[in-house]
Amino acid sequence: MSELETSEIICANPDCRIADTGKCVEGMERDKCPHYGHAPAERNEVPEADSGIPLSAGGTLTPVETARLLRAGEARVISVIGPSDAGKTSLIAGLYDLFQNGPVADLAFAGSLSLHEFEHVCHDARAASRRDTPHISRTPRGEVRFYHLDLVSPTYGRLSLALGDRAGEEYRGAIDDISVVADFIEIPRVDTLTLLVDGERLLDVGARHNLRSEIDLILQALIEAGAVATRPRLAIVLTKLDVVQASADRARTEADFAALVANIFNTFSGSFSQIQAFRVAASPKDDSVQRGTGVPELLTFWLESPPVPPTAAPSAQGASRIFGRLKEREDAEATI
Amino acid sequence: MSERSIVIIGLPESGKTTFLAALWHLVTARDMDTTLKFASLGNGDRAHLNEVAARWRDAKEQDRTATGGNRLVSMNLKDAQEAQVHITFPDTAGEAYGRMWEERECDEEVAQTLKAASVMLFVHANRIQAPMWVVDDAALSLRMGIALPAGQEVPWHPRLAPTQVQLVELLQLLTSPPLDVGPRRLAIMLSAWDKAAGEGLAPSAFLGAKLPLLAQYLRGNGANWDARIYGLSAQGGDYDAVDGKGVANQEAANLRNLDQPSKRIRLISANMDTSDLTEPLAWLMT
Fold it and tell me: Which of B17, B68, B111, B156 is most buried, judging by how many CB atoms fall within 10 Å of its CB?
């Protein structure tokens, strides 16, 4: 009998959590994935004689690594959510790139465990890529990944920022089946839920209606599934401001965004401790709008002290359960 | 005699070997008042130091093929109180440090040297790869009426990352397992300072202006790094190619005409303008 025919769910990719989530980290079908059904390699295997000493990978953090980071000191967890192509990775990469020129607001860069991956995602917006227009690749489907930044400021001292990034298709999928929200393990611990509204799509007179519907229903799914019961802060962010401002439909789009924000406030304000709207151009296509416009204001909002969760709320139990799962996973990994 | 080791790190061609060459000349020539002085040749192989110093005196560039491997060099020096110290430096090719950024691993031999309590980080002040963005290039092209060529995309490679990012990561790796040894002193040597002096900036201001991410990182990590910034001109100007090919450099000829080669050296910091290359060593070891 082949390994694929065994009943145990195993995968040779150490980053894949298919046994827990039922999903391939590469977003592939089980019968197409070359790692599925094969036992993972031993993590403590002796390196080959001619290989060097492995160093920190500098990539995005897994939920377990992020949980470890949260326990180490003051931190904020930010979940950037929204439909596909809303600009989630552009926002995260654009924030990092602002620090290349100096402090942002009164916040200075103090380190990152994700430096290598930040550079990777920023490459296609950099001149070294020799592109004629900036580009940021879409987030692949799979488990949420966290970008990490350490920041220092006179106001907050030193703190860590964990920025959760997940494929937009998965958030969109919550509309069809709210049970998938249980996999969004980044949401229950989040300090600020950051909901992106694609400015380019809002400009489209036809697409805007579906966009508003998707936004409303994504929030509805998260609330209904109990994922935001800690009443985090909510940032509603209009992205691609450069495209909006260059359009003849700018006024109508701005009005649509204001109406969308008002509707969210009226419908969902009870689920969030604070709701605030932002307009950003994290990685504009031209220089009509300054690169990173609106991002410092959003960053300042992210860093404000997290709301105190209601002590007896079932959500707190939910959050504890999530961290319990992360702890169990970490303990399990530590024994390998 | 006490034993100290100082690790000299930096990306390729950042001036590490030239510093060692100038330092060995300076202490063995004994023609300048220095904080640390030559004590003895002592036992051990000094061939590499003599070779690179000879090339430096001839105003010839260091031969990268001859300096490409990992070498451990040492000097017996003494302080003003005649206390002797045996200082060990690795002369490691910058590619080894580039590999740490690009391939996320380092050789066992290099890892051992990276555990020294004191670090000198060399940065070529005239070869800083600054971050630049497509949007700025495109805007400039538009203003000049020259379209950016399409279809020439270059795929991602870590070596394309800005210099300041690679240097921050190098320092971060030194404060993370398996290379972490606790708080350390760090001398940042902005080499080829004669090429950067035209900017009219002090070394620390130059670092803030040209390497702002690194400057922020250092300010935010004072608990890990007790840092000083130096501007270093260890050659004094451009040297001739070591293979004798190419046009003879007038600057090199002028430098050879100086009666005291030690006078080619210039080290600048916040309150100092000297030829004494041992000053940072003395500070690193206190």
Answer: B17
